[in-house]
Amino acid sequence: EAGVVQSPRYKIIEKKQPVAFWCNPISGHNTLYWYRQNLGQGPELLIRYENEEAVDDSQLPKDRFSAERLKGVDSTLKIQPAELGDSAVYLCASSRLIQETQYFGPGTRLLVL
Amino acid sequence: SQQGEEDPQALSIQEGENATMNCSYKTSINNLQWYRQNSGRGLVHLILIRSNEREKHSGRLRVTLDTSKKSSSLLITASRAADTASYFCATDGGGFKTIFGAGTRLFVKA
Question: What is the pLDDT of residue A1?
Fold first, then answer.
């Protein structure tokens, strides 16, 4: 069974530029999560999807971050414009159902200069 | 804010020794999970323990949960160099939001 796939693995951009991350969850997993992990910290939930519906986006900075999960499968997370403080690892995870085991992708390491 | 807080922040032991990490949380939970993260890699799920369970085992891992103290512990027995990683506890805050702690960094010396 293929795991959660994320791309790109690394991204370096200048501040004020846009950036997008892509996630393909495990087949059949209805719940998809985006997390941000700062250096030396645990992951922080940004948004959770149940199928194509965003059911928890309370931690998503909506002035510059947006996300979508078309057709309830793949998802993209976008930042526009990026700020220096956005430098972090962005992790995608999926689970078959809410409150079940989450499987994480390798993450996208973002550096904003 | 992060609900789970791991203790200690860092731990260095010799191969073969046992490693114990603790996690405290603030609100009631439905379940608590432990994850491992190797340097430069994603998180790997280790164990999920539900609020009505007190102890679970998986190979060399033993997790306990004390809901009256709002705490959990992860014990790794007979540690190996490959166990070197960061270990995180994650709770659901009694709902559906997953909240991670800052993690314990374990270093196992060969």
Answer: 64
